[in-house]
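chain below, 350 aa
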Amino acid sequence: MSSQDIPEESLPAEQEHERGAVAVKEDPFADPGLPPHKPRIQDIDERAAKRSERAVAFMFTLSMLATIGFIASYVIFPVDKIVYIWPFGHVSALNFALGMTLGIALFCIGAGAVHWARTLMSDVEIADERHPIEAEPEVRAKVMADFAAGAEESGFGRRKLLRNTMFGALAMVPLSGVMLLRDLGPLPEEKLRHTLWAKGKQLINMNTNEPLRPEDIAVGSLTFAMPEGLNEHDHSFQTEIAKAALMIVRIQPDEIKDKRELAWSHDGIVAYSKICTHVGCPISLYEQQTHHVLCPCHQSTFDLSDGARVIFGPAGHALPQLRIGVNDEGFLEALGDFEEPVGPAFWERG
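prediction:
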């Protein structure tokens, strides 16, 4: 079908026939330009601008208060507290408080920044031509001038209330991250320095759950003991036995090289912590001829005839010794707690 066969009303309106050719009246891809700028109420009414300024400052201030609430939540709510909150149901009070306060803090900063940009910063659209990647001196001067003009139009220097509250909100939000360091674990306080051993507590055989007498400990044998009153069915058993586990051996008194070890023993019976001073593994291997004990995890070796000092392996210090004696009934008893913390070193250990 030729162009002569097409009805005239079917041809595009912007086209016309001239001697068999089609002439285009308008460019279909012409730049429509920017719409005329319409001033906002804040641009012409300073009272409206002040209201927007106060609204932004309120959101920044609310962000600061939420950050304070985030920090306070760590102190106020215990980890195991469960509360009912509709419509979420039963949730952790700590997790809910942390999520709500941190969410409000971040949302208010973002909402305040958006409201500031939409109501107080200049909204005049500026078109700029493309330019080479390498900036000419004139371009750099223009960029700096535009930046200075933008800063002036934003009111950043003139509206001190906005600036100060924004700085306050941005400075306090990172404190939430600092508080998250608490999740590395609870502070040990004095719990790592003390065990259940105390003066007068009997040594209980962990295999028979019976008090130990000196005649129960044979030369060359290794016996494990725990403090009197500790029951394996207790809720805190694993926590306490991890610090109080004891190993008992009997050495001929003339084979004990360390004077304090001899003074703290009873008839050659010495009691040492069972917890390795490397990473806290339980020691369970004993060589009766050399009086050496070996940790099965990383092969740290201790000499029980010489103050349980380290003679091989990665352990950093000797095993703590427990001073023992015999009570009126003839049972072995502790004469106090360990003189130093048991197990591996920790960051606040003096």
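Residues 13-18 have pLDDT under 50 and may be disordered. Residues 38 and 215 are 101 Å apart (CA to CA).
thats it, cya
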